[in-house]
């Protein structure tokens, strides 16, 4: 009876507050890897000439052991994993899907999209749409000119999460900034209300609003929506096998949620890892400047930056130069240049007491 009452209450809240962020937050009951179904989006079509990894799959599941002598497959079975790929030298050594997911199943990227946004910034700089990472953001978002200290914020600050822009990263409250820009239907309006929290370039604070501002800058600098630019510069050139989408806030004049929400398949996520593994070069064509990839994967602790984060990428092992795109609920594209290795893990949740970065590093040691 209590569950029936709760369900009726949720229905009443939703239908009386369909344009209300709190109503949507309650109705959808927290984020999920299937959220691409609830948001409007723009298409990223499959390439007519897709790239295919070599399907070797000669890796024994018993080769690897993790906590309590679990085999790799057992570990994946006992966590909310939906896809796991290990690719070395362009050969798929391990590929398995769980919980009714398959090769052609779509999964929302969450914050892995931040690394794609960074790549697009690098491309836009190389094409002259943006002068440099030292550009002040007010050159692209002039509505910030009259706001205190916004004239000090650079594109580099946004990339490094050192902008000082005030935001609550919580997804657990409809009043947190992350939830507002995730469920919100007017990102441009939210952006116009931003305020500063502390002096730019003085400290690191992981805040998704930084990447959302990078998306707005991309749109204004290139005079294209971000999905169109992505499709032209990355999606088609690296031969994606499947159709994908990028979620936007609303259908009319929508803005891509560049801090999250690229909705794609595991193999195509792996191709983005391959692009960075080869320093932006795709089979002889330089899609992202090699210098940009190098800057994105090298430690820099100046201007408030931290040694484990650079240009929207995370470092899993600062001594060995391994890095990853990392998304909420345990989405990963792990890249290990010394082993020519890519690992993709997608899941509904990370899983209890599992540190996936450690799993990736342990797997790499065995190869």
From TrEMBL:
<dbReference type="InterPro" id="IPR050789">
    <property type="entry name" value="Diverse_Enzym_Activities"/>
</dbReference>
<feature type="domain" description="Beta-lactamase-related">
    <location>
        <begin position="74"/>
        <end position="358"/>
    </location>
</feature>
<dbReference type="Pfam" id="PF00144">
    <property type="entry name" value="Beta-lactamase"/>
</dbReference>
<protein>
    <submittedName>
        <fullName>Serine hydrolase</fullName>
        <ecNumber>3.-.-.-</ecNumber>
    </submittedName>
</protein>
<dbReference type="InterPro" id="IPR012338">
    <property type="entry name" value="Beta-lactam/transpept-like"/>
</dbReference>
<keyword id="KW-0378">Hydrolase</keyword>
<dbReference type="GO" id="GO:0016787">
    <property type="term" value="F:hydrolase activity"/>
</dbReference>
<dbReference type="InterPro" id="IPR001466">
    <property type="entry name" value="Beta-lactam-related"/>
</dbReference>
